[in-house]
């Protein structure tokens, strides 16, 4: 890790672009992280809407229309963001900006030049970027109706990746998020790794991906986890997340919708009152019928 050529208020990592420009940054925090990026005058970063946490006084923030792919209007109709936040240092001295992860997530700095200029990520994984980075989404590519034991091969890049629906490309530095804890696996040529589909945060484009539905139909009807497995074959790099956002949100929803009686004593009283009223209604109807 090279030292920056100017003084910063923190001990940073340093990103050096293909044009030899140096940008220091630091990832702060544990479970819900923040990436703090130093910007020289006239430098800028691009971030997802709602991710800016703080910035120095010399920074200017602008919401600009930057559709993530050619079908930007369709993304907007489906509720997707088709704009980005551009943060620029308009001052005469160095400044900084803090970009926060949207949930209990780790921030992964990915130098696209080291990944052949492209990486495939889970939906909404992109957080912010420095220099030349393009983000494109594939709309409505969920995997459906896969028979038991059948493998679906996801060929090279364009669009049939289902769960890997965000394509980040270019020659700059991209910051992506992974829920919970993040693990990086470096696969050798021919090395195979089986991962739960929802736990894949990102893979390099050189990894061969197969989707295998390995649950019987009766289990699919009853629900459950780990029904779909991704079989990954190297070479390439895989980023695995321990707590996908949808799994976290489902558990929160369950705890709110089905509270423990010990934690909510009113629930027991409400149930008792409901059964008592039901009993009264049934007895009353029987008495009126006999009369």
TrEMBL record:
InterPro entries: AIM24, AIM24_sf, Trp_RNA-bd_attenuator-like_dom. Keywords: Membrane, Transmembrane, Transmembrane helix. It holds the Pfam family AIM24. Signal peptide: none annotated. The chain crosses the membrane at residues 228-246, 267-288. SUPFAM superfamilies: TRAP-like. This is Altered inheritance of mitochondria protein 24, mitochondrial. It comes from Kalanchoe fedtschenkoi.
């Amino acid at each position: 890790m090279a030292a920056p050529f100017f003084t910063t208020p923190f001990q940073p990592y340093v990103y050096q672009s293909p044009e030899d420009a140096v940008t220091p940054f630091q990832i702060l925090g544990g479970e819900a992280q923040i990436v703090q990026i130093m910007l020289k005058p006239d430098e800028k970063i691009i971030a997802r809407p709602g991710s800016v946490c703080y910035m120095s006084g010399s920074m200017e923030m602008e919401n600009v229309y930057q559709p993530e792919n050619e079908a930007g209007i369709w993304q907007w109709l489906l509720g997707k963001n088709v704009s980005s936040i551009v943060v620029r240092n308009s001052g005469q001295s160095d400044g900084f900006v803090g970009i926060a992860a949207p949930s209990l997530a780790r921030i992964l700095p990915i130098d696209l030049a080291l990944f052949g200029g492209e990486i495939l990520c889970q939906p909404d994984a992109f957080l912010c970027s420095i220099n030349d980075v393009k983000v494109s989404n594939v709309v409505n590519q969920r995997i459906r109706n896969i028979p038991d034991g059948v493998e679906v091969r996801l060929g090279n890049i364009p669009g049939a990746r289902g769960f890997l629906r965000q394509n980040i490309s270019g020659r700059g530095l991209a910051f992506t998020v992974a829920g919970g804890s993040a693990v990086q696996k470096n696969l050798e040529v021919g090395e195979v790794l089986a991962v739960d589909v929802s736990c894949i945060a990102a893979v390099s484009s050189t990894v061969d991906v197969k989707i295998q539905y390995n649950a019987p139909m009766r289990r699919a009807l009853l629900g459950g986890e780990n029904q779909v497995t991704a079989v990954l074959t190297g070479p390439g790099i895989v980023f695995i997340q321990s707590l996908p956002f949808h799994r976290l949100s489902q558990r929160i929803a369950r705890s709110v919708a089905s509270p423990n009686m010990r934690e909510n004593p009113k629930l027991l009283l409400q149930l008792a009152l409901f059964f008592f009223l039901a009993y009264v209604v049934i007895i009353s109807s029987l008495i009126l019928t006999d009369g």
